[in-house]
Amino acid sequence: MDSNTRPAVLxxxxxxxxxxxxxxxxxxxxxxTYEAASADEAIALMDKHLDIGILFTDIDMPGTMDGxxxxxxxxxxxxxxxxxxxxxxxxxxxxxFPDGASFFPKPYTARQITASLHEISRQFG
Length: 125
Known about the structure:
single chain; alpha/beta; Rossmann fold; 21% strand; globular
């Protein structure tokens, strides 16, 4: 499966260097990527790019909603989109995450994320 048949990944991270690393990692794994620094920017991209099949979001970010609220919004508006949440925060209540969302604590490894993305992309096959 090549990058034209895999779902695109939207990376939402307010820290530019972390976002850049995530984009590089996911692009190198063979996925098309879009990037956003806030939930508002992410929603605008999802409206515009119908090929986004995976949301990879941080929790803590500025704007009208955090990553958990963004994930819930995406689950309601685009139910087929697969959601991956990453955070360095401790003591998170995962019960607030949307159904089916995956969680990776920071620091995560490239191997963890890319393995998860490849597994998800097989579902789109």
